[in-house]
């Protein structure tokens, strides 16, 4: 087969698997798991073959016109460059691991067939975004991911947390999609095409008339999809969904789509220095704010969610300084270690019977119960904290090096202000990242208290994928030097200055957190905190549902816990109560947007029911009254009808005589 044919099959196979899984889910349930895993695995293998054939060389383009529009045509187009083929391999690998993991995690879930089909459709949509060479086709995948996330985040729809989180994720991302869609049409109007190659050619030739306006409109959609400030608030709440879904969303699909989109169209954004500065500020606020919030969270998955927001901020920062190679490099390395973190978190929650770090810190021997999750999560946290030689170190250094070059004027793609903003914020975020990664590891695996209940050996389907994903977590950074052709041909090697500086501040953050933990642990008593609700024999998905419900019941919130031995509480001081709520952005948005929109909706409902419907009912009442009056004349008495006829005739005759005399006199 040609490379183009193989590339077409990559998004098509998961789509066909999703359709077949939905059709056979009830009639032939034995086929559901093979239809979930095998098409996704085949797509991952084909994506690797496409990447090998593309080889980081010249981009492969293929297109056929979808339909004549009379103005800007829409094409079914593929655009396979080094970025696209590598990201597709990541998506295929993570999606396959998630599907395998889910076969055990949701083993007895009655909604597993629809869940597996939605995961396959989600994967197909992301692969369509990655390979698409036309913005309208890309938009189809973009929106399909949005509706899939709604259903998957709300999988545990019996819990109020999941219902609220799914609706919030859908509405917040749609809020960004409205200006995003306007920006796409404005871009096509300026360049005369939806084809990515045509748009980039027009930009290079100075054919973009409104670069700042278009870039800012597109950034609104990117902020929503990739959970960047100020539209990031949906992502922490989305942790109410199943853990494998969290891994898929955070590592390889939805939140990566916005970053990938900007990387694809970076010349469009680079045409406006103002847009790059806005992107830099957005990234800086996202990095620092999410780091502070992560340090205050008690739910282990919410810590990882804010971590994702911060790491996406690094990727946005790389794009803000005009280096899409560094952005995609960090996207891929982050996808590997973040998938490990979430999938390992699912094992931890199952073993501990709770998602509360405060409760875990009062348990003994958790690490011994789950050695696979313990070791792989330790490696992934080291990668997250950018400790060499793990992948996160090399990719984060690539971002900081790009910012350094822009700040000192060695590169002129972006304003120096953007470079300084990202460099300073990136170093500050490195301290926070190391701090919350250390805190998570200490509270989860170095707890003191009663021994954790023995849940038995974790399913092989859940533990094996952790080691599969640990391989790129360890090795991808070391191998990046051989992949320069896939990253625009420029080196991603760390510089000595930023490497020493960022690693040093990271170590300081980790060591300070460790010292604080030793201090708070020694001073605090060890009463049980929270609830561990799940039965040791329960399946992982049921454990997670009970953990979410019991956390809210025990603490009054899914975010924090009143734990005096939490080192994050001492480190943040008075800032802790603000950080644990995400700096009250949800409350602010409720006052500024939710309540006014709700009031406007109630006003519209009142006007519709009490004003518009009153006129409608009045018109109907008049018709009914006239009908009643006319109906009374229908007595059925022939004499009455004849009398009325004669009277009417007499009236007409008199009227005729009167009018005749009047006209005769005139």
Automatic annotation (TrEMBL):
The segment(s) forming the NADH:quinone oxidoreductase/Mrp antiporter transmembrane domain are: 132-403
Q: Which residues cross the membrane?
A: 6-24, 36-56, 76-100, 112-131, 137-157, 178-201, 213-231, 243-263, 269-296, 303-321, 327-352, 373-394, 414-438, 459-479, 499-517, 641-664
Keywords assigned: Membrane, Transmembrane, Transmembrane helix
Q: Which segments constitute the NADH-Ubiquinone oxidoreductase (complex I) chain 5 N-terminal domain?
A: 68-115
Q: Where, per UniProt, does this protein localize? A: Endomembrane system; Membrane
Where this protein primarily resides, as one coarse class? membrane
Q: Which InterPro entries match?
A: NADHpl_OxRdtase_5_subgr, ND/Mrp_TM, NU5C-like, Proton_antipo_N
Q: How does it sit in the membrane?
A: Multi-pass membrane protein
Among NCBIfam families, the record links this protein to: NDH_I_L (TIGR01974)
PANTHER family, from UniProt? Answer: NADH-UBIQUINONE OXIDOREDUCTASE CHAIN 5
State the name under which the record lists this protein: NADH-quinone oxidoreductase subunit L
**What is the source species?**
Streptomyces argenteolus
Starting at the broadest rank, the lineage of the source organism is:
Bacteria, Bacillati, Actinomycetota, Actinomycetes, Kitasatosporales
């Amino acid at each position: 087969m040609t490379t183009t044919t193989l590339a077409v099959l990559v998004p098509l196979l998961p789509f066909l698997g999703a359709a077949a899984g939905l059709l056979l889910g009830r009639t032939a349930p034995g086929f559901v798991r093979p239809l979930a895993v095998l098409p996704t695995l085949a797509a991952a293998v084909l994506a690797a073959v496409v990447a090998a054939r593309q080889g980081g060389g010249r981009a492969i383009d293929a297109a056929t016109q979808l339909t004549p529009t009379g103005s800007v045509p829409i094409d079914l187009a593929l655009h396979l460059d080094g970025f696209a083929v590598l990201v597709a391999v990541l998506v295929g690998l993570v999606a396959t691991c998630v599907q395998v993991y889910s076969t055990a995690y949701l083993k007895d879930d009655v909604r597993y067939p629809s869940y597996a089909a939605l995961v396959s459709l989600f994967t197909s949509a992301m692969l369509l975004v990655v390979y698409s060479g036309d913005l309208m086709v890309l938009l189809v995948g973009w929106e399909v991911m949005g509706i899939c996330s709604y259903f998957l985040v709300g999988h545990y729809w019996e819990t109020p947390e999941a219902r609220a989180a799914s609706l919030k994720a859908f509405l917040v991302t749609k809020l960004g999609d409205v200006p995003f869609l306007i920006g796409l049409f404005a871009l096509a109007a300026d360049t005369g095409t939806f084809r990515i190659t045509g748009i980039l050619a027009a930009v290079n030739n100075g054919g973009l008339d409104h670069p700042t306006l278009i870039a800012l409109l597109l950034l609104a959609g990117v902020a929503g999809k990739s959970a960047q400030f100020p539209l990031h608030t949906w992502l922490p709440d989305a942790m109410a969904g199943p853990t494998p879904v969290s891994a898929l969303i955070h590592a390889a699909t939805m939140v990566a789509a916005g970053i990938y989109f900007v990387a694809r169209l970076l010349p469009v954004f680079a045409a406006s220095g103002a847009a790059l500065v806005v992107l830099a500020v957005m990234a800086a606020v996202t990095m620092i704010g999410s780091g502070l919030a992560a340090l205050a969270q008690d739910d282990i998955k919410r810590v990882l969610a804010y971590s994702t927001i911060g790491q996406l901020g690094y990727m946005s920062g790389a794009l803000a300084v005009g280096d899409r190679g560094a952005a995609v490099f960090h996207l891929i390395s982050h996808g590997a270690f973040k998938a490990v973190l979430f999938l390992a978190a699912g094992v931890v929650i199952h073993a501990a019977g709770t998602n509360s770090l405060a409760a875990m810190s009062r348990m003994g021997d958790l690490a011994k119960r789950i050695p696979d999750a313990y070791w792989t999560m330790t490696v992934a946290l080291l990668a997250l904290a950018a400790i060499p030689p793990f992948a996160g170190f090399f990719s984060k250094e690539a971002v900081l090096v790009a910012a350094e070059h822009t700040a000192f004027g060695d590169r002129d793609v972006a304003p120096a202000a953007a470079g300084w903003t990202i460099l300073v914020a990136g170093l500050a975020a490195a301290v926070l990242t190391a701090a919350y990664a250390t805190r998570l590891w200490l509270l989860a695996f170095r707890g003191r208290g009663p021994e954790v209940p023995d849940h038995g050996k974790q399913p092989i389907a859940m533990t094996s994928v952790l080691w599969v994903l640990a391989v790129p977590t360890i090795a991808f950074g070391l191998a990046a030097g051989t992949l320069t052709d896939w990253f625009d041909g420029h080196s991603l090697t760390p510089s000595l200055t930023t490497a020493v500086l960022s690693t040093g501040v990271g170590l300081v953050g980790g060591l300070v957190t460790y010292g604080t933990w030793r201090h708070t642990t020694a001073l605090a008593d060890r009463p049980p905190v929270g609830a561990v609700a799940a039965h040791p024999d329960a399946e992982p998905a049921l454990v997670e549902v009970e953990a979410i419900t019991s956390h809210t019941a025990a603490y009054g919130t899914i975010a924090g816990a009143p734990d005096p031995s939490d080192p994050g509480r001492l480190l943040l001081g008075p800032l802790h109560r603000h950080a644990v709520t995400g700096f009250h952005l949800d409350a602010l948005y409720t006052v500024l947007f939710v309540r006014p929109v709700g009031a406007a909706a109630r006003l519209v409902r009142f006007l519709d029911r009490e004003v518009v419907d009153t006129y409608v009912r009045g018109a109907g009442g008049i018709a009914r009254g006239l009908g009643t009056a006319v109906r009374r004349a229908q007595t059925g008495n022939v004499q009455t009808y004849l009398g009325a006829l004669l009277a009417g005739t007499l009236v007409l005759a008199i009227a005729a005589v009167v009018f005749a005399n009047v006209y005769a006199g005139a």
